[in-house]
Automatic annotation (TrEMBL):
Keywords: 4Fe-4S, DNA damage, DNA repair, Hydrolase, Iron, Iron-sulfur, Metal-binding. One of its GO terms (molecular function) is metal ion binding. InterPro entries: UDG_Type-4/5, Uracil-DNA_glycosylase-like, Uracil-DNA_glycosylase-like_sf. PANTHER family: TYPE-4 URACIL-DNA GLYCOSYLASE, TYPE-5 URACIL-DNA GLYCOSYLASE. It comes from Natrinema salsiterrestre. Residues 1-11 have a biased composition (Polar residues). Residues 30-149 form the Uracil-DNA glycosylase-like domain. This is Uracil-DNA glycosylase. Residues 1-24 are annotated as: Disordered. Pfam families: UDG. It comes from the Archaea.
Length: 210
């Protein structure tokens, strides 16, 4: 059993390269949860998936709260909504820094933070990557699988499917605000199925698509 660290927030002491946050907002929403986890939920940035005030990924916003509720239903999360206790699950963003006035990151902003995200993802070394939304899914499929060229970035089609990665199983999640009937149940069922399988054998083993 690996034991990376017992720290819950920013377990590796990352220091973002800039602070452009609004007054009262956190400089960054750092990775949060069980750093020894087998499941890593990857969001986009704080403005869409939440945490600018709480400092915790997948809080505050509609999308963030919906993802957290899925984690609660599948047994990964418990405790307070703004500071959940995560077990066997780690959450982080491709772009961790808060930006002013509801701004979205530019391509240069994403590039500035890519090395921080990559270092943390590899340190966590989870078995299952769960990117939420098109940006996170595109990044994870490009950087951690050889499969990106096989897919249109159609999140409705990719939602709750498993994709072969380079040592990971990737299960994309469509943005909750875009879910239609059955989408919530689909990702809950997929996670429950993975949990009851010998998912630790996915490391370095080809998984299926569909």
């Amino acid at each position: 059993m690996k034991n990376v660290t017992e720290r819950t927030s920013n377990p590796f002491g990352l220091r973002p390269p800039f602070d452009r946050s609004d007054p009262g907002d956190r400089t960054a929403v750092f990775g949060y949860g069980d750093a020894n986890a087998d499941f890593h939920v990857v969001g986009d940035f704080p403005g869409v998936h939440g945490g600018e005030t709480t400092g915790v990924p997948f809080t505050e916003t509609e999308d963030g709260v919906a993802i957290q509720e899925v984690l609660r239903e599948t047994g990964f999360a418990s405790g307070p909504r703004d500071e959940p206790v995560l077990e066997n699950c780690f959450c982080s963003y491709v772009h961790m820094c808060s930006l002013p006035d509801g701004q979205a990151p530019t391509e240069a902003d994403y590039a500035d933070l890519e090395r921080f995200f990559d270092a943390e993802l590899r340190a966590i070394n989870a078995h299952i990557l769960l990117p939420v939304g098109a940006r996170a899914t595109d990044h994870v499929l490009r950087e951690y699988t050889t499969q990106r060229h096989r897919f249109e970035l159609d999140m409705a089609s990719l939602h709750a499917r498993d994709v072969r990665g380079r040592g990971f199983m990737v299960v994309p999640i469509q943005e909750p605000v875009e879910w239609v009937d059955g989408d919530r149940e689909a990702i809950v069922s997929k996670l429950e199925a993975i949990l009851t399988s010998d998912y630790r054998q996915t490391k370095g083993v080809a998984t299926t698509v569909g």
